[in-house]
Each structure stands twice: as structure tokens, then as C-alpha cells.
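I am going through a labmate's work and have reached the protein record below. What it holds is a sequence and that sequence's fold in C-alpha cell form. Please read both lines and tell me whether the C-alpha cells look consistent with the sequence. Do not assume that whoever made the record got everything right. Thanks in advance; the entry in question is below.
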Amino acid sequence: MATLPPEPILPDAGPASAAAVAPEVLAEALVALHGQAAALAMLARLAPEPVEIGGEIGAVIARATPWQRVLVAQAVADCAAMLDTGLAALGTLARRGQDPSAPALILWREFHAARAAMVRVLETPVAA
């Protein structure tokens, strides 16, 4: 386990990055990500999950430190890229008349694991 908090090891992107990971911006990015996940769930023949970024998760985002929000923002961008390319490939399968449900389920599991990691980062207690 690292003995230093992540602040010294994260690249310094300046004040613009602090605004880019404001709690409101991060919550909007998570809502957009869950929109992509809903499309993926449909292809995987799963019921889409309700998207509720306000409430409890909104409070968790608001309490998160800047380094936590930076890491989660990077993970959201990575997941969005993964889902963009994955949904495009699954769309190609569907247009060819092939069943995309099995590969969609695999991609869903990857998204689910990444989302769980994001939540764990946000819920990591920060030593004072």
C-alpha cells in the first residue's frame, strides 16, 4: 500500500483540471456514462439500471477530495471510450444479423467492475 496520498503522484494539470472535475461536472459525466450503459444493457438483454446520480452518490462526490475526483474523472473518460468503441462494434454485429448479447454481456461486466472501482475511490476515507 502506498504511504503517500495520490496528490504528489498525479500529474499537475493546473487550475483548469480542478474546474473540469467539479462535483457538478463529474455528476453530469456519470449520468452520460450511465446513458451509454443503458444502451449496452439493452444489447446484453439486461434491464437498465436506474440512473440516480443525485442524492447519496451526489453527496459522496461533493465530499470527495480533488485527487479522488481527478481519478474518477479519468476513469469516467476511459469507460466512455470503452463503451463508445464497444457499442460501435456491437452495432456492427447487430446490423450483420448476429446476436450481440454475449459480447455485450462481457462488456457490461467490464463496465460494472470499472464502476465499482470508481465508487470505491470516491468512498475511500481520507486521512486528515
